[in-house]
Description:
There is one protein chain. The protein is α/β, with parallel strands linked by helices. It has a single domain, classed as Glycoside hydrolase/deacetylase (TIM Barrel, Alpha-Beta Barrel), CATH 3.20.20.370. The chain is 38% helix and 15% strand. The chain has eleven helices and ten strands. It has helices spanning 15-19, 24-31, 39-49, 62-65, 68-79, 91-96, 112-128, 146-154, 214-226, 251-266, 295-312, and strands spanning 4-11, 54-57, 83-88, 136-139, 159-160, 184-186, 189-191, 196-200, 203-206, 231-237. A hairpin with a 2-residue loop joins β8 and β9 (203-206).
Amino acid sequence: MTTRVLLTVDTELTWRHFAGGASWQENLALSYDPAGVGVPHQLRLLARHGLKACFFVDPMPALIYGLEPVRQMVSPILEAGQEVQLHLHSFWVSLAEGDDSSLDFELTRFTPERQRELVRIARDLLIVAGAAAPIAFRSGSFAANEATLDAVAAADMRYDSSHNGSLQPWPSALPFPARMIAPARHRGVIEVPVTQIEQHAGALRHLQLCAVSSDEIEAALLHASANRHPLVNIVSHSFELATRDGLRRNPAMCTRFERLCGFLADRRDELPTTRFDELDGIALGARAEPLPARPLRTLGRMAEQLWANSIYERAL
Length: 316
């Protein structure tokens, strides 16, 4: 059995730039294609290495800006032959309703009925923006509970990917063990958790490009393959290869993404990349454990992150 790999990229316009007064064009530039290393750059690297990825696109900025920025996010992804699925940051709803004094940043703050309505609105907006009807969902900030799964099922989607054990019980509030990293069926949908590793005994860290080192990512992939895990689910963002202000490329992150692409290309038979629309028949409820901690590997990542932040994220 091969271990399939989901490269997932949360693709969105961000609160940071909206709050700073950015127009949608400025927000798109700083969130979707910051410093020339956003989604178009990532699409080119994926194509060069022959890899598949899923881009979770948030259409909710259309409530404020209209559909044009969402179309401009969706179109290049589809033209590159990659997959678009549904993302949802709920603070756009508060803004659209004229309440910016108490923003609802977590979807879980809404009633079950309202969650169903918002997921359906987001689904319809994504389709109008040019995407196919989505079959997979990830809540912004991984903020999801059982009502969220009911809303996903009611919107005719088969997969959710909001369970993040390192962020449990808040904002990821799904009723799964924190260490669950294999797909499982619950409340009419298949949960595809974000993969976790141990950073030290009893403490998890999710497999996000900016949160773990290249050594940790590669060790987690090899661990999953050696132990016949059905799937590894890696998270990134449209803006993750740039500095937080969106104005400069982050060479450390660019190198990490390029190294990951090369690693997966070299091991495509053992660790093939996949899409949600190719997950029919994926093993459910398999035994899978996070990569065990190794202190030197964790210390190496901490030193690397400290160095990168001091060099690339310091104030201009």
